[in-house]
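Predict the 3D structure for this chain.
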Amino acid sequence: MAGHSKWANIKRQKARVDAVKGKTFTQLSRAIIVAARNGVPDPAGNFQLRTAIEKAKAAGIPNENIDRAIAKGAGTYADDSVQLEEMRYEGYGSGGVAILIEALTDNRNRTAADLRAAFSKNGGNLGETGCVSWMFAQKGVAILSGRVDEEKLLEASLESGADSYELADCMAEVFTDVGNLENLSQHLKNEGFVVSDVELRWIPSNSVEVSDSEQARSLLKLIDTLESLDDVQNVTANFEMADELMALSV
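Done. Predicted structure below.
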């Protein structure tokens, strides 16, 4: 068990996107619908649903909207005629950067067309299923806020079955198998850590170093465009770039 910094750039990329745009009400509500559909429609017995509700409340979504989303996921909402599908799309950005997109859609043709347009306008290509997903593995991530004692974090990570962790200024991220995320989160809380968020994240097995400013600008614009689509829930790419390049689209 050891800390690692390989994914620090991806974390900064995600933080930049979230700070600029944030998740829309539509995206957060859809996450609740899918969580309720995939498990019991009770947050007490559904970790995914409980997490989605917490994020929705933090974003200011009214309780009645949350309750309606749960009912839609459970199939008990009388006026619900929309059926959402979980879709995963794959493609390439400028310079062959691999991009993985998770979407929730009620019209896969519309979503594919929107994604294809976003790629083509920003120097990329929407690819076939499987073209880049083999480069990624899904992990559970617990995000800790505040200053973290590394020795204490190492011990807690070992005890909870985590794979690795990453330390940064006033925060840390702990990585584990998807099925162990709830256990990890609870154990860290019991040990006194402040768990500010938990999520599932696609982690690339290799990365592409980006040093050209025009390529960086093109990639960041593509990521922003993809993230702005209501059907898109998450975007992951396998590039690394220096902070000064990362700031180009801010």
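The longest helix spans residues 213-227.
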